[in-house]
Amino acid sequence: MAEVTQSAFPHLPERLNGLGEMAMNLWWSWHPAARMLFKTLDRPGWKEAGHNPIKMLKELPHEILESAAGHPDYLRHYDVVFAQFREYVDTEGGWFTEKAPSQDSGSIAYFSAEFGLHHSLPFYAGGLGFLAGDYLKESSDLRVPLVAIGFMYPEGYVRQEVRDDGWQISKDQILDRDSASISRVPNPDGGQLLVAVPFIEPPIHVAVWEVVVGSVVLYLMDTDVEVNEPWNRGISARLYGGDLEQRLRQEIVLGIGGSQVLKTLGIKHSVLHLNEGHAAFALLERIRERVEGGTSYEEAVDQVRSTSVFTTHTPVPAGHDVFPFQLMEKYFRAYWAALGVDRQAFFRLGVHSQDPNAGFNMTAFALRMSGYHNGVSERHGEVARRMWRSLWPDLPEEKVPIDHVTNGVHVPTWIEPKMELLLNKYLGPSWLTDHDNPVIWELVDDIPDEELWQTHYWLKMKLVNTIREHARRRWVEDRVGPSITIGWGTLLDPSVLTVGFARRFATYKRADLIFYDIGRLKKLLNDRWRPIQIIFAGKAHPADDPAKLKLQKIFNAARDPALGGRIAFVEDYGEQLAQYMVHGVDVWLNNPLPPMEACGTSGMKAALNGVLHLSIMDGWWIEGFNGKNGWAFGGGDVSDNRDQGDAEAIYRILEREVIPLYYRVSEDGVPNGWVRIMKESMKSNGPRFSARRMVKEYVEKYYVNALRSA
Ligand SMILES: *Cc1c(COP(=O)(O)O)cnc(C)c1O
């Protein structure tokens, strides 16, 4: 490690070598004290580097680093944090070790098409990615022996820019691989490891990168290497791009290539966990390897089933990949022969009996070939059982073996550092170590209302300032017109009740629902004494024009003087903006079309920080809402006009409950009734919707059993 540090950061003084070591492990990203260590070296440098310590350490002038190395205050801070880091990485064993002792690192291979770990690593599109990223961080904290596989997408998802007329355009931005928190995995002769994906002609090669996430390693595959044919080089260029065939090739690389990468690295995993169906071909590789070793096909399938976990994430039909049989034939002819099955038998593995001619359905296939499968909330479990019941024709719906584990968020990542300090003060300094224990959270009641409110208000100001600064920059640098500058949020006012709506712009999420009755909305926005303001953010998929139209509608509303400057649309929603928003708004609004929201996680991030959830009864909120920790609507029967009914419910709750409560303040300016709900939200949701509770559930329900069968 010391050598790596020396060559990667030639300016780094010996005394601060640990900075280089810490920069190479994303541990820094969920430890505010470590982030401060980089930030205080040079604040502008930290900002310029996009909060990426590797880039920063490479670019900082030698004198700045030398001066820090001679600064006693800095060194004291450095020594403390570095010792914590060393303790974290050197400690062997943790919660997991007691559950299933004597497992090797990498016993569980976790495959995902996206990983959302930090905004400097653009390998995510939305919730699925953050779930996977949070899963790795929590697995590291609990010392689950996990190894992860994904893609290095140099172009990431889309960078969003909104034109003057409100139409979203995508902007290319290529990741500088050598300044990101990733490193090349070397091969024995010193170059970067290249692995050929088996069974593809002409061969596809992937270059292998790694990201160290605490004690977990994530290997990323990159097809942009010279030996590949030009059209193969772009396979991993970006998330969810390309046509159906390119998509199939991407999934072949993920599942089959990913398995080959692990094999080449000598990582013997005994359990496979698929985060969504994109990587399901990894199941085929597990079977093929066993058949190759002399096991019968049937026996191999049984072994693979009893050691494979599959998590399905979406009730939206378009979210499940289906590849035409012809296309499958083109790529898998040699493959089914290697398995020892014929064409028909192979295709049957991916048939969804409700639509048998549609093609090879990756979810149906993954459900058939894994012994443990689950949805991501209680409701989604029910929906998935209904959706896939035809795979188990002899069982009644409630007996269909699809279970659920409700998602959770990585608390150290999503708790705001100032809020964390406040909780340290009242819950005790070890609350974070034990944060899935609900008893600890009862102490939230001891926080004086005024202190909690001030912390929240400070976060709201931070959000508003950040948004205004973005608007100001666009005004100055791009000379956008005044009405557009106002649309970016110039007139936001931190004292006004602030509603946040930020997520991917898929049409089922109904981003524009609150505009349903524009007259009624105007009254709320323009109320002289008790106004509300709404901040929107989110990207539409580049091929989803209906979603772009919704975005345009909202952007144009934001510019309309009739709406009082109280609507803002903020560009390029990503992890960084998400952090500001889930910490800083007052109310988190969620109104998808039920039952399309498998779970939802942004509301959990908000609730954890005392931001109150106003949501339709769908996804996790059915489990989370307890009558006193936020607001809910839309649980009843669906009327003829669902949009109208749901929009009216939102107006009614805002008018009768949310607005009066927010503006009912004591003499010292604290809305005590509001703060009571904030506390209730933190207490009830914080421990329960944590990634810690989630990962423990996966371990106890599936991993422990699957490891036993291995
Ligand atoms: C948490 C998060 C999501 C997921 O949001 P939901 O719509 O609630 O599933 C998407 N994008 C970003 C940037 C996030 O941080």
From TrEMBL:
<dbReference type="InterPro" id="IPR024517">
    <property type="entry name" value="Glycogen_phosphorylase_DUF3417"/>
</dbReference>
<dbReference type="GO" id="GO:0008184">
    <property type="term" value="F:glycogen phosphorylase activity"/>
</dbReference>
<keyword id="KW-0119">Carbohydrate metabolism</keyword>
<dbReference type="InterPro" id="IPR000811">
    <property type="entry name" value="Glyco_trans_35"/>
</dbReference>
<dbReference type="InterPro" id="IPR052182">
    <property type="entry name" value="Glycogen/Maltodextrin_Phosph"/>
</dbReference>
<dbReference type="GO" id="GO:0030170">
    <property type="term" value="F:pyridoxal phosphate binding"/>
</dbReference>
<keyword id="KW-0328">Glycosyltransferase</keyword>
<feature type="modified residue" description="N6-(pyridoxal phosphate)lysine">
    <location>
        <position position="605"/>
    </location>
</feature>
<dbReference type="Pfam" id="PF11897">
    <property type="entry name" value="DUF3417"/>
</dbReference>
<keyword id="KW-0663">Pyridoxal phosphate</keyword>
<feature type="domain" description="DUF3417">
    <location>
        <begin position="12"/>
        <end position="121"/>
    </location>
</feature>
<dbReference type="InterPro" id="IPR035090">
    <property type="entry name" value="Pyridoxal_P_attach_site"/>
</dbReference>
<comment type="similarity">
    <text>Belongs to the glycogen phosphorylase family.</text>
</comment>
<dbReference type="Pfam" id="PF00343">
    <property type="entry name" value="Phosphorylase"/>
</dbReference>
<keyword id="KW-0021">Allosteric enzyme</keyword>
<comment type="function">
    <text>Phosphorylase is an important allosteric enzyme in carbohydrate metabolism. Enzymes from different sources differ in their regulatory mechanisms and in their natural substrates. However, all known phosphorylases share catalytic and structural properties.</text>
</comment>
<dbReference type="GO" id="GO:0005975">
    <property type="term" value="P:carbohydrate metabolic process"/>
</dbReference>
<keyword id="KW-0808">Transferase</keyword>
<dbReference type="InterPro" id="IPR011834">
    <property type="entry name" value="Agluc_phsphrylas"/>
</dbReference>
<protein>
    <recommendedName>
        <fullName>glycogen phosphorylase</fullName>
        <ecNumber>2.4.1.1</ecNumber>
    </recommendedName>
</protein>
